[in-house]
Backbone:
């Protein structure tokens, strides 16, 4: 009964006391954490397959022709010089992989909880824009992750060539996983740059013409960013990251130019039939005010009603 009454008393615009906000935040955080834990438990059951998927490109680039699972089935020991350090190393590695995969698996749940917590405070058009940004942001992030996954083998082969002749290069498995995770995040977030520019244009903070004027500095900045973001200094890895970002930047600029043109055409046409026109609230000089004609003054009434103002008493 209390819960139903509380739901009935909820403000239609999403307004609620601070205590209710904190209670809702606690509930949504609890659901998100529970979903991550469930996802981590599922990932722990298949963490070897996850490790194989993440490290397979690097394994081939450093001379391993088979995955860890295939080598384990053949009982031939570890692959090449990829190592796991310490007695607790395998267990720590499993926990790290499981938690990371749990966050990814549970992303639909905690993203929905985040949206459900923020959405009541947004206007209708803001909700529409935010849904469009999320729908476009996820494919862009996955595209960046796909690029990083295919850049890593070339990066690993270049880095391994720096090993002095006769030296043994030990590759800790947890460091490899950290490298893969960092590259996926960096590439994925870098592909969100055009989405940020489009958002700034839709809110009116940046025009398409100004974005087009940034093209020289943007190309230089993206190139420098790619040089620091990629683990190697070879031009192939740098261009593989810089070229898609520059292309997405020009696509965002084209969208901004079209959006600005649409705004100018709409302003030139004026407000529609169902839109209110803007009021001119500019104050005028009192001396230049137009006098009220006598015909517009209130008519006088004769007879017994002359005591009132213009023939009207105080009540009327």
Residues:
């Amino acid at each position: 009964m209390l819960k139903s009454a509380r739901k009935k008393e909820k403000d239609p615009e999403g307004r609620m006391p601070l205590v209710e906000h904190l209670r809702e935040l606690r509930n949504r955080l609890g659901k998100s954490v529970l979903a991550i834990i469930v996802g981590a438990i599922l990932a722990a059951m298949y963490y070897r397959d996850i490790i194989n998927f993440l490290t397979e490109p690097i394994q081939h680039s450093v001379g391993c022709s088979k995955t860890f699972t295939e080598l384990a089935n053949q009982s031939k020991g570890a692959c090449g010089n990829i190592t796991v350090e310490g007695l607790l190393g395998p267990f720590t590695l499993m926990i790290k992989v499981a938690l990371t995969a749990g966050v990814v698996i549970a992303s639909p749940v905690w993203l929905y909880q985040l949206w459900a917590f923020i959405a009541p405070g947004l206007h209708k058009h803001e909700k529409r824009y935010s849904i469009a940004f999320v729908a476009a942001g996820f494919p862009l992030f996955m595209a960046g992750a796909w690029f990083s996954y295919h850049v890593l083998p070339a990066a690993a082969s270049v880095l391994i060539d720096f090993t002095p002749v006769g030296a043994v290069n030990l590759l800790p498995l947890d460091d490899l996983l950290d490298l893969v995770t960092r590259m996926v995040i960096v590439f994925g977030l870098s592909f969100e740059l055009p989405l940020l520019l489009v958002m700034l244009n839709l809110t009116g903070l940046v025009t398409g013409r100004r974005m087009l004027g940034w093209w020289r500095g943007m190309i230089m900045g993206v190139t420098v960013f790619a040089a620091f973001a990629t683990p190697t200094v070879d031009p192939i890895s740098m261009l593989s990251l810089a070229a898609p970002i520059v292309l997405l930047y020009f696509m965002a600029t084209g969208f901004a130019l079209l959006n600005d043109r649409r705004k100018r055409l709409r302003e030139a046409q004026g407000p529609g039939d169902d839109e209110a026109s803007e009021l001119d609230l500019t104050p005028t000089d009192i001396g230049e005010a137009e006098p009220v004609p006598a015909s517009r003054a209130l008519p006088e009434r004769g007879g017994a009603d002359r005591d009132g103002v213009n023939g009207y008493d105080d009540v009327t």
Q: What stands out?
A: The beta strands are 82-83, 171-172. Residues 1-5, 74-79 have pLDDT under 50 and may be disordered. DSSP finds twelve helices and two strands in the chain.
